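Hi there,

I know you've been waiting on this one. I reran it after we fixed the sequence typo, so this is the corrected version. Both the input and the resulting structure follow.
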Amino acid sequence: MKLKKLAGLISLLCMSPAWAIEPFTVKDIRVEGIQRTEAGTVFSYLPVKVGDTMDDTHAATAIRALYATGFFKDVRLEVEQGVLIVLVRERPSIASIELNGIKDFPKDQLKDNMKYAGLAEARIFDKGALEKATQELKRQYVARGKYSVSVTTSVTELERNRVAIVFNVVEGEVSKIKQINLVGNQAYGEEELLDLMKLSTPDWMSWFSKNDQYSKQKLSADMEAMRSFYMDNGYLEFNIDSTQVSITPDKEDIYITINFTEGAKYTVSSVAVVGNTLVPKEEIEQLIQVKSGDTFSRSALTDASKKVSERLGQEGYAFANVNAVPTIDKEKHEVAFSFMVDPGQRVYIRRINIVGNDKTRDEVIRREFRQVEGAWFDVDKIKKSKQRVDKLDFFGEVNVETQPVQGTADQMDVNIAVEEKSTGNISVGAGFSDAEGLGLTGSVSQNNLFGSGNHAAVQLNTSKTNQVYSFSYTNPYFTDEGVSRGFDVYKRNSDSTNTAVSQYGSNTLGGGVRFGVPIAEDESISYGLSAESTKLTLSANPPARLTQYVNTFGASNSNLLGTVGWSSDTRDSAIYTTEGLVQRAFVEVALPVFDMRYYKLNFQYQWFYPVAKDVTLLLNGESGIGGGYGGKQLPFFKNFYGGGTGSVRGYESNSLGPRDINNAVLGGTGRVVGNVELMVPFPGFEKTKSVRLSGFIDGGGVYGPGDLPGSEGLRYSAGAAVIWISPMGPLKLSYAVPLNKQQVDKVQAFQFNLGSMF
């Protein structure tokens, strides 16, 4: 048969009938030109087999299939005496990829990203993939505000049909917002409106916040913030007409112009409630705080509708629809609202589904739920359930959603998704100092033992000053009703010879049992009984008061301690508290069984108040008083102490209050502490709930006999703190300046604590 060439798919499809081949039966198939690709691979993609009839259509299909593999840059078909010859030229493989001039990104990370575009070493070279990777690299720089970035590529052919690819990048400078122009504002000044926006011209915090770098998402959020501001201040007809964003030819400066129309300011003429309210209409009207004569506020309307919906949700009407329908009088600039109430159908909960708890048992979460399966939907119970799971502090994230059951109108599922966090802590350490000597420390604690919700902790400290060996175990659900039970065993040896505390040593061995009983949804009482034995040793030149105590009551003491406590916790979250109240009262009494006779009373009050979105005010107050009875006195080693984290920051830990003749701290029989703290999101971390910044004012004092130095007056300090909800617990780093330091006081500006907030 005469040789005929079919050179390329396009030529094949466009050739005239004179180029058409006569159909023939394929006797054999031969592949030529392959170097890396196996012949079997070509045969697997070739839609022609020996014995098939070959014609123009089959030839075009075969060429198209081989091109589609991406392995070849040229494909030809030849026919010789019934043998189909497939001639191919392979695309080169990528021998290397080099990135030059890149500083903003790790090169390994960029190469990993290029793999998704199909560009990687040892892969087949594709110009389309190269272009895609180039555009993606430019996009990443533009996302960082570098609009002047330049990316050029070069492809060098190497031996054995390989290529080397080089990216040459000129990163350029970050484009900054030079000016933001507002057009249309009459009621409010430009500065006041610009303060509402996240985007801004460069200032002293721009290096951190990056708010001087243009972002389409940030601009959209800023326009919505401006719209909300106007709509909440009566401007019902406010409208953003257009926005223009332009960049200078050198791509260094960005100009933003926002055109808007304020419209007239509207007041509310009347408010009415219509529809089937189910609950007394008067109760619904009380939930609606919008009144006749008020300035129109979109947020007030939204809040009123939400409160009415939630009230109906308490009765099981999960799909209640509450709409505020306006009637606008443009001449008088007044608007009347009719709250249309449609409760819908009453809904009950079919199933509660829990996901994300790989370690924690389902029952640990379910026992905190107040909404139960088979009961009517109650929005308050679902909220309370989320709060209680949140307060377990086993999870970094707790999300609760309700989902209608398909095919029904009166059923709903509750889906709770948790993100488990580390609830265990293991620490081992060693140190040496002239004062402490060699010290070994170690502790193991688990707040969610084997996923059961139980708590266990072992502590070991062998320093010269403090030696602690302790074990504690708590079962928060000793009974199904939520009664908790815990055990404690401890041995504490302390030697304060080289500390600020008055110089003495003590060896204490004790153990006890405790119970907690819930008396209301957010309240509980606790009680416990423990026994301990203490042996005292005094320094060579002890203070007179310590010597007098040992001479009167002896160096060895035993006591039986009874404790009673009460607590109330209405916080919305233990992870990221924004509102709520915490109150704790605790009484410790040495029962008249052994040597000691004393009592200690403590009370704490914490109030979290949401000042604004993401801004929380914390007020904390603590007081304590102690004394003896039955002719005894409060043992000096049971005294109150103050100063440092947990009380008055800026002063050394346990340094406030009465001192002896050697200026060592004695502690006192009474203590008072007050803190005012304003917490805001940390700049640059607004989207995360793990880091907050605060400013605070602390005050407090420790009181004893009035003739002792240091007993007079309160101490005050002010400063700032960073609060980080770390995997190991809340970490607070603070810097404080004492406001009324006395001569005997010892100060410490930088302090930190890991654990509770106060």
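Quick highlight: The domain at 267-342 is CATH 3.10.20.310 (Ubiquitin-like (UB roll)).

Best,
R. S.
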